[in-house]
Amino acid sequence: MAEPERTPDGRFVVIDGRRWRATDPEIPEEAAARLRGLLMRARRDVGAARRAQDSEAEREARARVHAAKVALGERGTPWWEQDRAERRQRWQHGLDTLG
């Protein structure tokens, strides 16, 4: 799969004409891959909970989706407004919480 288009400042990707916050480029690839895997698992769990009509499981899975997106820098305080220590703390906390 090709890399999505990025805005000139690298802060956003453009998909189908819509801007989405890019993943923090400072996250080491191994950690980013783990976080993406945890995000995908949480998204699958949202679908399974919806099919099972289990609202509690859906809430829990959506919370994990949100936590993974924050850890990746795609939600929460923009990664470009954080110093290196804050950025590392953000993604490490996500791994500790989700992993």
- Average pLDDT taken over every residue: 96
Rg, rounded, reads 14 Å
Structural class by SSE content: mainly alpha
Number of strands: 3
Strand order of the largest sheet: 1-2-3
Could you say which overall geometry the principal axes of the C-alpha atoms support? globular
Strand portion, in percent? 5-15%
Question: Can you summarize the main beta sheet?
Answer: 3 strands, antiparallel
Distance between the termini: 26 Å
N-to-C SSE string, H for helix and E for strand: EEEHHH
Please mark out the parts with pLDDT under 50 across 5 or more consecutive residues, or reply none. Answer: none
Helical amount: 55-70%
- Number of helices, counting only DSSP H or I runs of 4 residues or more: 3
In short:
By secondary structure, this protein is mostly helical. The chain has helices at residues 29-51, 55-72, 84-98, and strands at 5-6, 12-15, 18-21. The chain contains 3 helices and 3 strands, in the order E-E-E-H-H-H.
Protein traits:
99 residues, mainly alpha, three-stranded antiparallel beta sheet
Present the secondary structure layout.
Elements: E1 5-6, E2 12-15, E3 18-21, H1 29-51, H2 55-72, H3 84-98
Helix pairs in contact: 1-2, 1-3, 2-3
Structure commentary:
- By secondary structure, this protein is mainly α.
- 57% of the residues lie in helices and 10% in strands.
- The two termini are 26 Å apart.
